[in-house]
Please model this.
Amino acid sequence: MTDSAARRGLAVVLAHPDDESLACGGTIARCADSGIRVTLICATRGQRGPATGVHDSAALPDVRADELERAAHLLGAERVRFLDYADGMLRWTDPARLENDIARVLLEERPHDVVTFGRDGLYWHPDHVALADPVFRAALRLRPRPAVSCVVMPPGAVAGLVAAVARRVPHIERSLWGIAPELFGHGALAPERVVDVRQVMRRKADALRCHRSQLADTHPLAAMTLEEASTWLGFEAFHAAPVEGFPSSGLIDQLAGLA
Model:
């Protein structure tokens, strides 16, 4: 990164605690290491997710929020902003309301770049899918407009990781949270930019494991080695937002060596 970009701002807008670490934790870490001011904007507190080790379900939203704060700290993000929507209900939420709430936070943060889900939702998660277009429309309100990039899972990455861990740990779960590995990246727009995050892979793996309530001991992300993580999760993929009106180049291009 150049000195002129030293305090650029990046806003990462995702749906649940742990989305940030799996989808683009390495990119967050690399941006933070380069002096970028990173803000995580999380639409929900993940209150419908698994609750490994959490005996009081009413406490789960606070547990997951704390896990996200700790992951953000490890990755180098400076702020976490919660929109406090109900987990699992984004697809039933008025898109205009969601857009307005996202726009309010973006206008306060004034990022130069935004990262969010593509319309495939990383693996067709309804909350993720519902978030994409409201983020695009909210970002169009900013002046100057930010570059907007959509994170997508490289095809075969999760399937490769699960298979690699299963060869070493036969009793491991063969999915991520019950989601077939083949769904990650399936049907997404082709990646246009790929960011090598292997240099910060230990932090990405540690950030994922901050989300302890989501990871039983038999979960592949809990059991993977650093070498397995680097091989299968060491590259993060993006494409430009599929709408007109945004700059054609931004931080992701720089990290990918395209600018």
